[in-house]
Amino acid sequence: MIAAARARAANIFYRPDHFKVDLFPLTDDPLQQSQLRRARETGQSARQWEDMRGIVQTSGTRLDLGYLREWSANLRLAIELERLLDSVPPRN
Question: In whole angstroms, how large is the CA radius of gyration of the chain?
Fold first, then answer.
């Protein structure tokens, strides 16, 4: 990969499932090591979290909460989904 050879971040996209993987070269830099540890602990980036909050805020009552709760349970993400839903103020 060109990006790996140049020690730059890259992405892999799988279009049928709209799945994206972010690749980052690992160095011995203490800041990067700290960021990697934090990303592993939280499971998502702050930007991803804010993106999800924005979707919930914008979609409001149009969200199919039954579907989201079913799949979050299947994926063992039910706690994270409820935390997300609780973090967004209800729309009037």
Answer: 17
End-to-end CA separation in angstroms for the chain: 49
Q: What is the pLDDT of residues 55-82, one digit of tens each?
A: 888 888 888 999 999 988 888 888 888 9
CA pair distance 86, 72, nearest whole angstrom: 15
pTM: 0.52
Q: Residue 72: helix, strand or coil by DSSP?
A: helix
Burial class (CB in 10 A: 0-12, 13-18, 19+), 69: middle
Tell the residue number behind the tokens 């499932």, with chain if given: 17
